[in-house]
Design goal:
single chain, alpha/beta, Rossmann fold, five-stranded parallel beta sheet, 6 helices, 17% strand, EC 3.2.2.-, 2'-dNMP_N-hydrolase
């Protein structure tokens, strides 16, 4: 199963270790993460060599090729919001996870589309359970 992982890049990189944890956890459970670059420490420097159009094309193509999207939305990001909308518009199941107590956008929490689910987590074990539950339900689609 191909998973597009979304996390804040230009909006703030304070959760890189969480992004890396999610990606490694999913890979350990045999999920293919097609956007694992999101967890790279020097991603902004790498993407600085790309045009805005190339980044847009790469990410939207990967979303369209994915089976689902998992977005860590604790850190507000216009790009992640756009990726979520792009996925929903292409009828891809989307899981938005966020740290308990985070001020998450009403545009995510208030979305009642059958394609989007938002769940808070308070620790890594709870996060793992949320991820596996979502992927287990969507691997049967």
């Amino acid at each position: 199963m191909k998973v597009f992982f979304a996390g804040s890049i230009r909006g703030g990189r304070q959760l890189i270790s969480t992004y890396e944890y999610i990606i490694r956890f999913l890979e350990a459970h045999n999920y293919m993460i097609i956007s694992e670059h999101v967890a790279l420490q020097d991603l902004e420097r790498i993407e600085a060599k790309m045009t805005e159009q190339a980044i847009f094309k790469k990410d939207t193509t990967w979303i369209e090729e994915s089976d689902c999207v998992i977005a860590e939305v604790t850190v507000p990001s216009t790009g992640v919001g756009y990726e979520i909308c792009h996925a929903v518009n292409h009828q891809k199941p989307v899981l938005c996870v966020y740290e308990e107590g985070a001020k998450v956008s009403a545009m995510v929490l208030g979305n009642t589309s059958k394609y989007i689910i938002a769940r808070s987590y308070s620790n890594k074990q709870q996060l793992e359970e949320i991820l596996l539950d979502f992927l287990g339900k969507n691997s049967r689609m």
